[in-house]
Specification:
With 807 residues, this protein is mainly beta. The chain has a single domain, classed as TonB-dependent receptor, beta-barrel domain (Maltoporin, Chain A). It contains 5 helices and 53 strands. It has a 22-stranded antiparallel barrel. Strands 3-8-9-6-7 form a 5-stranded mixed sheet. Strands 18-19-26-25-48 form a 5-stranded mixed sheet, with no helix packed on it. The two termini are 38 Å apart. The N terminus is likely disordered.
Length: 807
């Protein structure tokens, strides 16, 4: 079915309708009896590591229950962003899951701790695994603001905690759900609890999921499409020998295989050369192979790469949790062992700048980690409260990269064939990091007032090194090239983080709070940069951040309507940023690579939510976020080929002599966005029920709005996005059976969500003695231009059907 266009007026009318008929599909998990009650159900969260009402927690928190994840067909954790404004969860290449919150972003390639830490059953885990399969979930909580006290690892923007369902000790219960779409998508999942006695129970769950990822086909691979298939199973054994002791042992297995082609847009190009693989290989004048590809637009959803981009993930996770009520205090433990093996294979020439040439790269990433945490906290609900804890994590595993390191030696005269200095690189990046931390907190609760604060002392130890082996071996040195000098390979740091909150309940329906949080992230040493460049580029400084937040929470109309408003101000000293594709003028060779770099920054904003029930069968939920996160007059890496002082990729790659850092890179002064996200975002969702004698028809809808904005980093105007998902179905009065039809992206908006700065190119070197563009050749040749920019585009409209059952 062809897409249809809708005017901006119509889009805003659809948004207005959503706000006029909103629904609390978000953060609600009620039984049939609750749905008929006059007030909304109380939501319990574990944001503070204790069970507390969402309305009483002194921080901004968004909650999505497992029930609502199933109802809204959220099978990919990244779609949780549709329920939490200001949250961006992206995967631009199929391998690097990036989470942005409050305008603060993180690129996994930078090697530092993430800006938003992900926890699975209270154990920190990598986003690549946590986001791959989401099923049989009890609850997801998005904790906003710096995390440096209550959980083991510090994070400057927030945390996402994912809790899986636990077995029921009292009765057999479970669910099964099957979904299919018109675009080749399918998802089958289910879970069941088996109580063997009132002290021993088992829950097993699983999922099989398949989809076309970004819905891109590769025209240079016979129209092959992107695809993904995930299989996962989980078993949780619960043991409750007494009312005071409960333990859960969980094992989860996951396997995922994703082939994701990189979409491109542009006119393409007729390259001067094409690759002929004879001998060591050569570039010859291109007369027969044609263009890198045809003219392609956003809605063509096409790729031109000749190689693949495949990501495989096999993961085993064992998790143990227990809570032991000792009377005055509770002793809690959580520990886990995770082993993941990630295999990645990709063509680095994604724009097909050199037809016939596949810039192959293969990466093996073993993720072996052991984590343990023990906590002892008081059970007091009034008076003095306290808690102490210790955390340990060890991460090991050698990352191995094998990729072509060919050098194109291009002459100025296209009639003269050029040669390829054929090399391959074998890169070994040993991973060896250990974290110990110890925390303590004190609080006092009396009547309406609650005050609490604490500190965490951390010992970060690690070794970061890179060994690069070139084939054929360098004539002067057969030994590996050491990418990081020995003096920067080891580090031991002792940061102190923490926070404090004060909360005052003016009434049972209204409270106000103020909080302070301090977090820290270690600086990192770059592992894939040319040898011999400035240490200022190789190693970044530690990042420190301080945040201040005030907020109010409350309910009105006999708790039919709940609301919250929070305002915050956050400062960063040496914020850790990532800058991709930066031209580096190295002492031995020139290249383009990703760089880590520090700069001061600020983030400030306001967040608000409103949800409740207008009638017993009509609920609403709306949430908005306005955040302004910017660099603070920072000098940062950039491509400044025109030597204008602003980022640009016009002309021959070179370093601006007026701004460079030790001659290796250009720097541009900026106060631009920390991440390519708009300042404002909004979500609204609804469900209207029409109860009958034995069945209940319903309509659900989910609307998200992201306005247009300009990216200074890549000099591009991103269009606004209005995403509308619509659901209509029927379920039995006892809610045991349900069938519904749905449409994702009903308006069929296909908007660019990420785009490269300039066209994708392959670097080349000119032969000494020739002249290039009127100037003497100095080794850097004109880049071979593909004529395409690399893009990510929102997925097109997709229709589907779901059948589910509960017992």
């Amino acid at each position: 079915m062809k897409g249809f266009e809708i005017s901006r007026t119509a889009l805003w009318l659809s948004g207005a309708a959503m706000l006029a008929l909103p629904v609390a599909a978000f953060a609600q998990d009620r039984s049939a009896a609750d749905a008929d009650s006059a007030s909304t159900a109380e939501i319990i969260v574990t944001a503070t590591r204790q069970n507390e009402s969402l309305q009483a927690v002194p921080m901004a928190v968004n909650v999505a229950t497992g029930e609502k994840l199933q109802q809204l067909k959220i099978f990919d954790a990244k779609d949780i962003q549709q329920l939490a404004p200001g949250l961006e969860m992206t995967n631009t290449s199929g391998r690097n899951n990036t989470t942005t919150l409050r305008g603060i972003s993180f690129d996994p390639d930078q090697g530092s701790a993430p800006a938003v830490q992900v926890y699975l059953n209270e154990i920190p885990t990598d986003a690549q695994t946590a986001y791959t399969a989401i099923y049989d979930i009890q609850q997801v909580e998005v904790l906003r603001g710096p995390q440096g006290l209550l959980r083991g690892l510090s994070a400057p923007a927030g945390s996402i905690t994912i809790t899986t369902r636990k077995p029921n000790f009292d009765k057999v219960e479970g669910f099964a759900q099957a979904t299919a779409t018109d675009r080749g998508g399918y998802n089958v999942q289910g879970g069941v609890s088996l109580p063997f006695s009132d002290t021993l129970a088992l829950r097993v769950a699983g999922v099989v999921d398949g989809n076309r990822v970004n819905f891109v086909r590769d025209i240079n691979r016979n129209g092959q499409r992107s695809y993904s298939r995930t299989e996962s199973a989980r078993a949780t054994l619960g043991w409750k020998p007494s009312p005071d002791f409960t333990a859960y042992l969980t094992y989860q297995y996951l396997t995922a295989d994703t082939l994701q082609f990189q979409q491109v847009v542009g006119d393409g190009n007729t390259p001067l050369y094409s690759f002929v693989p004879y001998g060591l290989g050569a570039l010859v004048p291109d007369t027969d192979s044609g263009r890198s590809g045809p003219t392609l637009g956003v809605k063509d959803r096409a790729a031109v790469q000749e190689g693949d981009f495949r990501n495989q993930n096999e993961t085993h996770i064992v998790n143990l949790q227990f809570d032991w009520n000792l009377g005055p205090a509770t002793l809690s433990f959580v520990g886990a062992h995770q082993f993941s093996k990630l295999l990645q294979s990709r063509d680095l020439d994604a724009g097909n700048a050199v037809p016939g040439y596949i810039a192959t790269s293969g990466i093996v990433i073993p993720y072996l980690t052991n984590t343990a945490e023990v906590r002892l906290h008081s059970n007091n609900t009034q008076g003095l409260t306290w808690g102490i804890g210790a955390f340990y994590q060890r991460l090991t595993g050698d990352v191995v990269v094998d990729q072509r390191q060919d050098t194109f030696i291009a002459p100025v005269n296209p009639a003269i064939p050029t040669s390829v200095d054929a090399r391959s690189a074998h890169i070994v990046v040993p991973t060896n990091a250990t974290v110990w931390s110890f925390n303590g907190n004190l609080g006092y609760k009396t009547g309406k007032l609650s005050i609490e604060g604490g500190l965490r002392y951390t010992i970060n130890q690690g070794i970061t090194k890179t060994d690069v082996y070139l084939t054929p071996e360098l004539a002067t040195s057969p030994n590996p090239i050491v990418g990081i000098p020995p003096e920067y390979q080891r580090h031991v740091r002792h940061p102190i983080t923490g926070g404090a909150t004060i909360d005052y309940a003016f009434s049972p329906q209204f409270n106000a709070y103020a909080s302070y949080g301090h977090s820290y992230r270690d600086g990192v040493a770059a592992v894939a940069l040319p040898a011999g460049i400035s240490p200022d580029i190789l190693v970044t400084k530690p990042e420190k951040t301080d945040s201040y937040e005030v907020g109010i929470k409350g309910s009105v109309f006999d708790r039919r309507i709940n609301y919250s408003v929070a305002a915050f101000y956050q400062t960063f000293k040496n914020f850790l940023g990532r800058f991709d594709g930066i031209f580096i003028d190295g002492p031995f060779n020139d290249t383009q690579a990703g760089l880590n770099f520090n700069g001061d920054a600020k983030s400030k904003g306001v967040e608000a939510t409103l949800d409740g029930k207008l009638t017993d069968n009509w609920s609403f939920g709306v949430a908005g976020s306005y955040v302004r996160a910017r660099w603070s007059n920072a000098m940062l890496p950039c491509n400044d080929y025109a030597h204008t002082g602003i980022p640009n990729a016009n002309g021959t790659p070179s370093v601006n002599p007026g701004s460079n850092l030790n001659g290796n890179i250009s720097l541009c002064r900026t106060s631009t966005r920390l991440a390519d996200v708009p300042d404002f975002s909004l979500t609204a969702n609804t469900e209207i029920r029409f109860p009958m004698a034995t069945v209940t028809p319903f309509i659900r809808a989910l609307f998200t709005y992201r306005p247009a904005f300009y990216s200074d980093r890549i000099q591009y105007n991103y269009q606004s996005r209005e995403l509308l998902n619509l659901f209509a179905g029927i379920r039995t009065a006892d809610e045991r059976f349900e069938i519904d039809l749905f449409a994702r992206n009903l308006l069929n908006q296909q908007r660019i969500s990420n785009i490269s700065l300039g066209n994708a190119v392959q670097s080349s070197f000119c032969q000494p003695g020739y002249f290039l563009d009127g100037s003497k050749c100095n080794g850097q040749g004109a880049p071979m231009d593909s004529g395409y920019r690399l893009v990510n585009v929102t997925n097109p409209r997709e229709f589907g059907i779901t059948v589910s059952a509960k017992w």
